[in-house]
Amino acid sequence: MSHNTLGRLFRVTTWGESHGIAIGCVVDGCPPGVPLQEGDIQAFLDRRRPGRSRFTSQRREPDVVRILSGVFVDDGGRQVTTGTPICLLIDNVDQKEKDYAAIKDKFRPGHADYTYWAKYGVRDYRGGGRASARETAMRVAAGAVARKLMPNVSIRGALVQIGRHRIDRGRWSWGEVDNNPFFAPDPGVVKTWTDYLDAVRKAGSSVGAVIEVVAEGVPPGWGAPIYGKLDQELAAAMMSINAVKGVEIGAGMAAAELHGEANADEIRIGNDGKPVFLSNAAGGILGGISTGQPVVVRFAVKPTSSILTPRRTIDRFGNETEITTKGRHDPCVGIRAVPVGEAMMAIVLADHYLRHRAQIG
Length: 361
Ligand SMILES: Cc1cc2nc3c(=O)[nH]c(=O)nc-3n(C[C@H](O)[C@H](O)[C@H](O)COP(=O)(O)O)c2cc1C
Prior knowledge:
Layout: E1 5-6, E2 11-16, E3 22-28, H1 38-48, E4 65-67, E5 71-73, E6 79-81, E7 86-91, H2 113-120, H3 136-149, E8 154-162, E9 165-166, H4 190-202, E10 209-216, H5 230-239, E11 244-249, H6 260-263, E12 267-269, E13 275-277, E14 285-286, E15 289-290, E16 295-301, E17 311-314, E18 320-323, H7 337-360
Antiparallel strand pairs: 1-2, 2-3, 3-7, 4-7, 5-6, 8-9, 8-10, 10-16, 11-16, 12-13, 14-15, 17-18
The chain binds flavin mononucleotide.
């Protein structure tokens, strides 16, 4: 009933709360013999870590991961997975409970405080408890394991919109993504986003964003119709990320405005005798099965709900009141959602890779 596990063959269970002692996950179903070191995982965690710029939460979490189980040094001296459950752990070191004392009985509008209270009747008010996006660190850790077991698949994400300010897709350069604090693939947008987010932050407000995640190297054939479609499970995985309110595959919502000629990706035979698609409105998926084209997913993240501006709400005793969130928050949580989106893509694809292998060989 608790639904803390994702996947069928590559299965990830996360545990822990924002202000508990630690957070962690268990990755079960990873095949044996996959080289895996802490450093492979740490590199991705470092990209999600808070406090990397003034546009993300100033919580100081080093997010150092430890592999507690599921690996062994083989005869060649390499640390590899053994096929047993891989337990990953990160200590929480920067918990400031007093930041949350003032809101302990109040429900933050837009956050999960009210619904957790309505459902469970127990409230871990410290930083959102289990509803906190601290949990997404473990998704990123599990995603790093998922990346290692898929042959020749590259997964990259970028921020393509903050508020109303979109990137110029004509200037898209993957090489730029790690050269600015926004994961922007268009260097031309960085100044606009910087000025805009500074103003949003100073006003004590927040703003939403759109993230695009692209997987290249996925061969034709991954995905399991009818109720395990690749697009279906990617949408569910992205929607499970905190604050995500919309998911698109390929042309997505814009497909509704297209005619059939523009939307249906025509096919020719390439020089190597293999099919070549002339466009990718399908986002690399037809009938729930990968086409061999890049798998393209976009998702919209809502504005951070805990903001400095006073908001009307109620408390758990039934009184109307006001709330102002102090503490340390991102003015745009969409920025740190980029590595999380990549991780969810990796976890879903790894699961489908194993499922495809299990059925087709
Ligand atoms: C990377 C990341 C960081 C987040 N940080 C905050 C935060 O500092 N304050 C906040 O109110 N919400 C934050 N959120 C969003 C909340 O976790 C989320 O809105 C809450 O759990 C309610 O779930 P829902 O928005 O999916 O319905 C963050 C989300 C992500 C992806």
